[in-house]
Prior knowledge:
Shape: globular
Strand content: 15-25%
Number of strands: 5
Radius of gyration: 16 Å
Distance between the termini: 23 Å
Structural class: alpha+beta
Mean pLDDT: 85
Amino acid sequence: MIGQERYDHLKIADARRLAIVEQSANVSFMNGSADAVEEADALRFDDETRRSMRAMRKAFADVILENKPWGLPVIQWREGIGKVEIPAEQLEPFARRILEGDGDPLPETEEQALLAHVKF
């Protein structure tokens, strides 16, 4: 999550990544519509945002597991590289772990370990 806007108050967790997204997509999220902008070290998400992020992680895991039997890759965007295709079988352990945790975020060290072998 790069940031969140709630009641015209924009909180930015990763200003550098936001700038990359704005430049890549030729859009501006900092158009002056928000009353206040705050750069936060770590955002505290409300229940709605946490449920949305959990649903996105579960949907990502579902795509991986649906692509695997068909031999289809998972297409992702990697900063500094662009579009990459990753074989679904490489991401399967990660997807299964996401679903085991009901879409909750994994500890960073566990996530890194699950993705350490991924080649694209």
